[in-house]
Amino acid sequence: MNDVQLWCRVVVTGPDGAELVGVPLSGPGEPGLGAVDEVARLMLMAGRLGGTVVVAEAAPVMRALLDLAGLPVEVEGEAELGEEALRVQKGQEE
After folding, report:
1. Sequence spans of domains, the chain
2. Contact 39, 53 (CB under 8 A)
3. Is residue 73 predicted with pLDDT exceeding 80?
4. Which residues contact 66 (CB under 8 A, 6 or more apart)?
């Protein structure tokens, strides 16, 4: 049986920046598209409330999947090898 691994913690903040809910995403093995779908659903909820989503403690595979999916979330976490922490924010298209 596979051990359960924490893929990331998703924090939904309100328009005033207050934390509304924190959701740990975890499962056996590496995260997949189901985890990305869960983040996208939380983003929709946050957007309807006028808030944002911050992904913390993201596993490298989870970061890569969020990047691949192009989700405009802010990712916080400890940077590797002295690099700056990854922060991805929604950009404006022209």
Report:
1. 4-75
2. yes
3. no
4. 36, 39, 55, 58, 73, 75, 88
Instruction: State pLDDT tens for residues 21-61.
Output: 999 999 999 999 999 999 999 999 899 989 989 999 999 99
> Residues 79, 84, 87, CA angle at the centre, nearest 5°?
90
Largest CA distance in the chain: 49
Q: What is the pLDDT of residue 77?
A: 56
Report the C-alpha gap between 57 and 1 in whole angstroms. Answer: 24
